[in-house]
């Protein structure tokens, strides 16, 4: 988020610095000079400034694009998640319920899977992203931290400290 604020701040500064009217004023001032060589030099300086600003705009545009790409899940990723995650969850829930062979436990698993199915649809992903939900930050980062803590032996409990 801080990166995005810095990028948009740089963009605002750049846009405000050289609006069309400012550039026309600079060109007019350069043309008003009677010395041909000095006028050419000033016009070359204006052109170089505009080229540098264009390069900066391209850099800012690329940075904004990178920032948005990291926050948005692509259509292909949504299709993959929608198609592949539900069978994995179903297998997981079924294996978790193998201990309870009752029909009640199996029905609860089916009900849970049927409940999750619309939530894992492409439409739900697209709607939530359109509303500004960031799946990678909300789900991916905490999941990454959880796995990291599990691997390092720190599940987030403070009970691991030895006296």
What general outline do the C-alpha atoms trace? Answer: rod-shaped
Helix content: over 70%
SS field, number of helical segments? 7
Helix/strand-derived class?
Answer: mainly alpha
Give a count of the beta strands, DSSP E runs of length 2 or more. 0
Mean pLDDT: 77
Residue runs with pLDDT of under 50 for 5 or more positions: 159-163
Main beta sheet, described?
A: none
Q: In sequence order, what are the helices and strands, one letter per element? A: HHHHHHH
Strand content is under 5%
Compute the CA-based radius of gyration.
28 Å
End-to-end distance, in Å? 40 Å
Describe this structure in words.
The protein is mainly alpha-helical. Residues 159-163 have low confidence and may be disordered. Helix 1 (2-17) runs antiparallel to helix 3 (36-71), helix 2 packs antiparallel against helix 3 (36-71) and helix 4 (75-96) packs antiparallel against helix 5. The longest helix is centred in the first third of the chain and has 36 residues, at 36-71. It contains seven helices and no strands. It is rod-shaped, with a radius of gyration of 28 Å. The two termini are 40 Å apart. The chain is 80% helix and 0% strand.
């Amino acid at each position: 988020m801080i990166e995005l604020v810095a990028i948009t701040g740089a963009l605002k500064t750049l846009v405000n610095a050289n609006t069309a009217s400012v550039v026309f004023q600079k060109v007019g001032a350069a043309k008003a000079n009677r010395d041909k060589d000095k006028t050419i030099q000033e016009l070359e300086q204006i052109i170089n400034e505009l080229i540098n600003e264009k390069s900066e705009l391209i850099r800012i545009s690329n940075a904004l694009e990178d920032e948005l790409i990291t926050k948005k899940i692509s259509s292909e990723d949504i299709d993959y998640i929608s198609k592949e995650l539900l069978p994995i969850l179903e297998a997981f829930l079924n294996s978790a319920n193998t201990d309870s062979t009752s029909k009640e436990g199996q029905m609860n698993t089916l009900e849970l899977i049927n409940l999750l199915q619309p939530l894992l649809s492409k439409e739900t992903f697209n709607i939530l992203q359109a509303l500004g939900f960031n799946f990678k930050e909300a789900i991916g980062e905490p999941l990454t931290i959880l796995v990291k803590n599990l691997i390092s032996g720190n599940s987030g409990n403070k009970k691991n400290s030895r006296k």
